[in-house]
Specification:
single chain, alpha/beta, five-stranded mixed β-sheet, two-stranded parallel sheet, 9 strands
């Protein structure tokens, strides 16, 4: 999730090329990019990543969403080299119990945890404009899996999802499901049969 992500995606869309974006956090404030993709008739594909239930979230948005909370838990070392935590003098190696590292809005979460919380940006895009997300990021030394819980209240009722993800062997900051989600998004894009919302 680099600062160049939005620029790379924009150049591809301007060249009328379809794009699959895994680093979603840098796209949150790029509304004009989504409009450009529509204008140029290109696909801007954003996989669900390491969370479940975006199909239901998008459907719930049609009737109105009242509140959404995303709680993400990872082993402390999943946050290694995080500058925000260093600036707050939080030493990951000293965490012995579940510790809330962040509790706030999605923009701040993505800014402070750019390598850990792409799921928050993806969830925000699925919810649409005007929906405020509460993001809680927790380091928990007792877990071995990256866990994401979504709780949504809306006109359609209450939705709760939880994923306990195996950590990607190539990158401990991300989940294996995120990789599989990208592959599945490409498969669906090239298929004439669509299952789910």
């Amino acid at each position: 999730n680099t600062s160049a992500t939005a620029d790379i995606v924009r150049r591809a869309v301007e060249a009328k090329k379809n794009v699959l974006a895994m680093s979603v956090g840098r796209l949150l404030d790029q509304g004009s990019l989504f409009l450009l993709a529509q204008k140029n008739h290109v696909a801007l594909l954003i996989p669900s990543g390491a969370i479940a239930g975006l199909d239901a979230v998008k459907a719930a948005g049609l009737a109105g969403i009242v509140s959404v909370t995303l709680t993400s838990r990872k082993p402390p070392m999943g946050f290694i080299h995080n500058e925000y935590l260093k600036s707050r003098n939080i030493h990951l190696e000293n965490i012995r119990k579940e510790t809330v590292l962040f509790d706030g809005d999605v923009a701040a979460a993505v800014r402070h945890f750019p390598l850990n919380i792409n799921v928050a940006a993806t969830l925000k895009l699925a919810c649409g404009k005007g929906v405020e997300l509460r993001i809680r990021i927790i380091a928990d030394p007792k877990i071995t899996r990256n866990t994401h819980e979504i709780t949504l209240e809306g006109a359609c009722g209450r939705i709760t999802t939880k994923t306990e993800n195996t950590i990607c062997s190539d990158n401990p900051k991300t989940s294996y499901l995120a990789v599989l989600s990208g592959i599945q998004t490409l498969k669906e894009y090239s298929s004439s049969v669509k299952i789910g919302t």
